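Most newcomers find our protein records easier to grasp once they have seen one. Nothing more is needed to start thinking about how sequence determines fold. Here is such a record, shown just as it appears in the course material:
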Amino acid sequence: MTEETLTDAELAHFLGALFERYHYDFRHYAGASLKRRVASALVHFGEHALPPFQRRAIEDPAVFTELLRFLTVQVSDLFRDPAYFRTVRERVAPVLATYPSLKIWVAGCATGEEAYSLAILLAEEGLLERTQIYATDIHPESLRTAGAGVYALDRFARFSENYQQAGGRASLSNYYTADYSAAVLDRSLRKAILFADHSLATDSVFAEMQFISCRNVLIYFDRELQNHALGVMSDSLCRRGFLGLGLKESLHFTAHTDAFQEFAPDARLYQKL
């Protein structure tokens, strides 16, 4: 089966069944992207049609857990889009420094690289000791990877380049220990971050935040779910708190445009009114 032969009705029935069984809600994810990912999953599992695979996924939680790898986007780098982090460092961090304590939420954290990037940035700005970072996702295996803070060593040449372009004040090697083919991030970074399961589709506010970074997540949602997720994040932000989105995302034409002002448009950073 290809994404072209996968019908809207089949997909809707499949997603409804997953929600009924596991309470993971993909029913308002962008249809075209979701069809591609379901079609890739069928190839991976050796299935040629959705109904028999639906039965497998419903009856075997291990199959569903592996399926999550296809339904969620788990691609990230340390200091991905360096201009974003440079703007956070130069313009957002000085405002955050005025708070006696900080709560920061990385929504859709995937395997944790963005959360660790913010932890390094905050450490260099003297803010990490008074900051609690919440990093959330719906993919359990990604959260385990994130919590371990271990990444392939061959990725760190690119990470180091990103770090320098993002205004890093030292060497990225100060923040990890190399061990054969892996790099282990420093414990001081790991203890500043709480990795937890949270769905922007079904879960609600859990704390008041001064800064929320939710990048390259909304592009996979349809308009209804985008508005819902933005509502959860808006309700979580304190007055004058900051929201960071991905470079292909915007608050324009959403139900929450009037709740924010553009703070750094090129970096997709907004401030709650």
